[in-house]
Design a protein that fits this description.
The complex is a heterodimer of chains A (257) and B (235). Chain A is α/β, with parallel strands linked by helices and 257 residues long. Chain A contains 8 helices and 9 strands. In chain A, the strands form 2 sheets. A 6-stranded mixed sheet of chain A has the order 5-6-7-3-8-9, sandwiched between helices. In chain A, a hairpin with a 2-residue loop joins strand 1 and strand 2. Chain B has 235 residues and is mainly α. Chain B has a single domain, classed as Orthogonal Bundle (MetI-like fold). Chain B is 80% helix and 0% strand. The termini of chain B are far apart. The chains are: A alpha/beta (257), B mainly alpha (235). At the A-B interface, helix 2 of A face helix 5 and helix 6 of B. The complex binds adenosine-5'-triphosphate (ATP) and magnesium ion. Magnesium ion binds next to helix 1 of chain A.
Chain lengths: 257, 235
């Protein structure tokens, strides 16, 4: 898929490509709606994800950012409208990497968490140890391998969850506030991994409330308010002046209701 | 009072000297109960996990049924197994009535619902946390269940211990299907019932003491496992 030296390969997968370009991207959301118990949580959301830059998804708490990521990951089915992954009705297996807002850590060691994921991705047993070592070093968790994952600090858990998602060698990476509550160093590690992924051709959707991070990372900004996209704007223009009232108010630090 | 004192002294002597009759009964109890709990786990763990995460028709009905079975009176289980295994019953040809195997069958029936119901609860709770992650890994349902069972291992051990506690203390079912035959099917609870009724308090007391010590040990193990499990959950 992506012809890179092992060093630049974020997945640590030296064995080579499993998918070809264009099998997952573009992801096209067409008038997507999601309702639960009669409450319309997402409405009329149209968005195309392609290329290898970062789409930053911003919006106030409860706007529907996490729900949107779940829809894009194929974990939730829209109740109206359609989503297509390179024209398909479901994403290819393991083509979408997801880092949850609250990281899900199996009740096992850090190493066993990675091993479990690699097994699910179909990496043969004999090849896993080397991959795990590579992933641990990407996350800078080399000395944490034998600890129970659930005793890691929040930042360490997010780093683990990040490389665990990258280990699938995804085409699309969905990151739900991966650096909320992280210190500058952990944040830098995660941002570095996102840049590396982008260099390797991975498309990323990043949810963040950190404006500095949005500026550093964004190729384009999608702003969501009350379940609706108010704009999708190239980053430079967005940070110059958001196009929608909701985004302008949010960026100015005003309370949005 | 004099008699009770003597009975206690004799009971301790039997325990300390490792009295053959007493040891035979204790060992048979252990064998029957551990075998029954082993089979109950073999059935109850996958059944509970399937009820927690499986999607098949009748899942709700089976869950209600299994939960109801948890409260089954042991004598009723004994009666049903007796009727199945008696000469006139459908499994009469196997000639299992009044054997340790019959007792294992009865206790397995008693313990399986406990293991299955507790497993279902524990796995369902864990799955609420794991579901989206495991789905994003595209794990087949069997591997998903295996992941959940393994990660719930501490809590599941308490399910097995709870089953062990019930099987050890139970007297009605093993009495009916085992018949309390000396050297063959006499276990601690049935021996205590018999010896007490015969006024042989020493052996009854000796067995009673051992039974209490074992229940306390099981409960202590249960609490310590629960404690470890909680530490893992909140870690
Ligand atoms: N399964 C559900 N059933 C009902 N309502 C839900 C469900 N999931 C989410 N919601 C509601 O949908 C809205 C959007 O939730 P979502 O988690 O997407 O917000 P968010 O934009 O990620 O917010 P935050 O910045 O706080 O993470 C919220 O009001 C939430 O309560
Ligand atoms: Mg969210």
């Amino acid at each position: 898929m992506r012809d890179l030296p092992v060093d630049g390969d974020v997945s640590g997968n030296a064995a080579g490509p499993r998918r070809r370009d264009g099998e997952t991207l573009p992801v096209v959301l067409d008038q997507v709606g999601y309702a639960a118990r009669d409450a319309a949580l997402i409405g009329d959301l149209s968005l195309t994800l392609e290329g290898a830059d970062v789409t930053v998804l911003m919006g106030p708490n409860g706007a529907g950012k996490s729900l949107t990521l779940r829809l894009i990951a194929g974990l939730l089915k829209p109740t109206s409208g359609t989503i297509r992954w390179a024209g398909r009705e479901t994403p290819l297996r393991h083509s979408v990497g997801l880092v949850f807002q609250r990281p899900v850590m199996l009740r096992r060691t850090v190493r066993a968490n990675l091993d479990h994921a690699l097994a699910a991705y179909g990496v043969p047993r004999g090849a896993r140890a080397e991959r795990i070592a590579h992933l641990l070093s990407l996350a800078q968790l080399e000395d944490r391998g034998e600890r129970p994952a659930r005793v890691l600090s929040a930042g360490e858990q997010q780093r683990l969850s990040m490389v665990r998602a990258l280990a699938a060698d995804p085409d699309l990476l969905l990151l739900d506030e991966p650096t909320a509550s992280l210190d500058p160093q952990s944040t830098a590690i995660i941002e570095g991994l996102v840049h590396r992924a982008a260099d390797a051709g991975v498309k990323t959707v990043l949810v963040t409330h950190q404006r500095g991070q949005a500026r550093r990372m964004a190729g384009e900004v999608a702003f969501i308010h009350r379940g609706r996209l108010t704009e999708v704007t190239p980053a430079r223009r967005f940070f110059d002046r958001p196009q929608s009232d909701a985004a302008r108010a949010y960026m100015a630090g005003e309370l949005l209701v | 009072m004099q008699d009770f004192g003597a009975a206690f002294a004799e009971a301790f002597r039997l325990i300390v000297s490792g009295d053959a009759a007493l040891m035979e009964i204790v060992l048979l109890s252990l064998r029957v109960t551990f075998t029954a709990v082993f089979f109950a786990c073999l059935i109850g763990l996958p059944l509970g996990a399937a009820l927690a995460v499986g999607r098949f028709p009748g899942r709700g009905a089976i869950t209600v049924f299994v939960n109801a079975l948890m409260g089954l009176p042991p004598v009723v289980v004994g009666l049903v197994v007796y009727m199945m295994l008696s000469a006139a019953g459908p499994l009469g040809v196997l000639q299992l009535l009044y054997t340790p195997t019959a007792m294992v069958i009865a206790q397995t029936i008693l313990v399986t619902p406990i293991v299955a119901a507790l497993t279902r609860q524990v796995v369902a709770d864990l799955n609420a946390e794991y579901d989206e992650y495991l789905r994003s890994l595209y794990l087949p349902r069997g591997r998903m269940m295996a992941t959940l069972l393994w990660d719930a291992r501490h809590s599941l051990l308490t399910a097995a211990l709870a089953g062990l506690g019930r099987a050890f203390a139970e007297v009605g079912a093993v009495m009916i299907v085992g018949g309390n035959i000396n050297h063959v099917t006499r276990v601690m609870t049935t021996a205590i019932a018999l010896e007490t009724s015969r006024g042989e308090l020493a052996l009854a007391l000796g067995l009673g003491i051992i039974l209490v010590v074992m229940s306390v040990t099981i409960n202590a193990a249960l609490m310590s496992v629960r404690h470890t499990a909680e530490r893992h959950v909140h870690a």
